[in-house]
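Feature request, filed as a ticket because there's no other form

It would be nice if the structure record came with a short human-readable summary line next to the C-alpha cells. Right now we just get the raw output. Example of a typical job, pasted below so the devs can see what we mean:
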Amino acid sequence: MNTMLFRRRNKSGFREKIAALVWPRKGFLRPFRYFAMRILRLNATPHAIAAGVAAGVISSWTPFMGLHFILSFALAYVIAGNMIAAALGTAFGNPLTFPLLWGTSWKIGNYMLGSAAAMGEGGIDLHHLYHTLSFSELWRPVIEPMLLGAVPPALLSGVLTYGIIYFAARTFQARRRERLLKVARARLGRGDDGVVTV
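Raw output as currently delivered:
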C-alpha cells in the first residue's frame, strides 16, 4: 500500500483551495505563533535571545538589503546576543515592511539633513540612478538620508523589541522550569512538599 503520512483523508476541492488563499484554515496568526515559539524555545539566556532579535530588527532598518544577516550577526556579537535569534529577527524586514521602513527612514533622514541638502537642487531620477548603479550618485539623494534616518527608529524599535522579548523569554523559561520540576517530582513519587509517597 502506498500511503503517505499526514495526507488528508478527503482531498480539498477547488473552492476550498481558493478560500484557503483568502483565509487560511488555521488562521493568519498561526505563522506568528510558530515564529514566536521558535524564538522563545532557543537554548539561551533571556538577554541573549532578546539582544539577538533586537539586533536583527535594528539591521532591518538599514538600506543594505542582502547584508542584513551579516549586520545582525556583527551587532549581536557586540551586545552578546544569540546568532540564531539575530537571524530570526531580520524577518522584521521583509517585502511587506521594506517600503514602510525605507520610506520612513528616508523621510526622517531628509528632515535631519534638511530637505534641500538631501534632495539637491532638482528632483531625484531614481529610475536612472538604479539602472546606472552609481554608488556616488546614489549616496547623497538616497543612501545617506536612509542610513541617517534609520538610526532613531532602529534604536527605538530595538529597545522595544528587547524589552518585550526579554520578559517573554524569562516568563517562558520560568514556566518551563516549573513544568519540568513537576514532571521530575511526579516521576520520583514526590509530592509538592518533597515527601516520598509510598
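Something like this underneath would help us a lot:
The CA atoms of residues 105 and 149 lie 4 Å apart.
The chain has one domain: 26-171.
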